[in-house]
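User: Fold this, then the next.

Assistant: Folding the first:
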Amino acid sequence: MGDKELNPALPEFDPSLHVGYPKPLGQAGASEAALFTAAPLLTAGALTLIGVVSADADKFRLPGTSLLLLVLTVIALVTSIQIGYQARQRLYSYQDLKDWLAVEKPEPAFVKAQHKDYVKWFDQTLFASVTYDFGTVLLFLSVSLVLVPQHGLTALRWATIAVALAATVGQTAWSLVTYFPSLIAWARRKKEKKAPDTGDSLPERSTVT
């Protein structure tokens, strides 16, 4: 028997005011594409470069530095996959609650638990995304160093290296602009121990931005 039956004066529990959901709604799919599809492919590419540089170190100007950056790249990308895997376990919808519990209206405790799990998913996915982007920056930088030959640095090779370095700078700037505000908002929310702000046109709904 729920609280409503014990006290009819209590307002009806409205799940829509408590269910956590991504904003934008495609955020979950986008993060999965990056963390579970792109990250493994980039990791494989970095591992391939490690094998190439290790086998022919005498052909590169900075083989030791290149290998260090490539190893850090692999660590960052694999870490993003691991964090994303742990986070994904906490993402489920109101419909999932109804399906798994085999009820039409899940009890309030389950709905509120869904919201708490959603917030944990959001926070962990944020850090997984930051780690993933850090890995891509390291990968661009690694490629820039790998492109530097031991001898015969032609004008075209200089241009290629410049393009790789420009991509590194661009990726770094894009990552900072994208994630720095989110990290500041996360730190402020944790410090104030407040519920996540919706920041959209539906403030009565539970979301995280």
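Now the next one, as you asked:
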Amino acid sequence: MASRRRLPSLNALIAFDAVARNGSFTRAGQELTVAQPAVTRHIANLEGWLGVALFHRHGNAVSLTKDGQEAADLAISVLDRLEIGLGAIRAAPRSEVVIGASFGMAHLWVIPRISGLRMAAGGAVINFVTSENYDAFDRQGVDLSIRFGTGQWAGVHSDLLFEEETHVIASPDFLAAHPEIDADNLPFTLRGEWLLEHGDQYNVGWMTWKSWFRHHGPPLPAIPKPEVRNFPTLLDMVRAGEGVAIGVAGLDDAWVEKGEIIRLGPALKRTGLGYYLTHRDNCAPATLEVRNFLLGHRE
């Protein structure tokens, strides 16, 4: 008789996946339509089963520990593959357009356009594969993907959505509490303990504090706080006044327009870098319509 698989509860893994993607126990509960305490119990059970902590707690927000990031990469990849694979087996399948993007890009740029995407798809289902590792888009049957870089990736065609433009960002309350910050002399008035870091785990080329200080001249003043893998969570932490971060025009615009986030100093633009929409040869008609819609709404 085959031995029983040594796996934790599937419900716990699904809850962990939702928290890792949303950066919040509350938002994960809303996505799963369960109470937040139930999500908390699932995470506690999974941490007990693994014997490691999966999250750092930051008030209402959470970020992944190193062990948590490894578990999240595995869980998201496996659940994405399971979802896509079982979807292909399901009776009476409908046509589908799968979009790959980082969680931040999906949440902040694509989802606000979801109604138009659905109309453009003409009845095809819109699904997502979210990953910070672009290799996942090549493995998981993705039709369209949004990637940061120079536009040069093997096996895909690339169209520029918008060029990179980054700013140092902070909340009005944080700036009021730290009047020593000089927007005209940021590299020499920012303290290391204030720096919130998104990081670049897969060497995509995103702007980090290390590269920002290298561009401006002075050395990095100190090791920034632990990396926040989820860009929407990073923005929430900035809005809550927990520190300063590097924002991306096109992704943080809504909070800037509301006055919840303030951009400091001049924009930093690196030649040749931007966000690209990629597709492969022989796209289905629905995929081409979704592509044309997204290109029509680029910045």
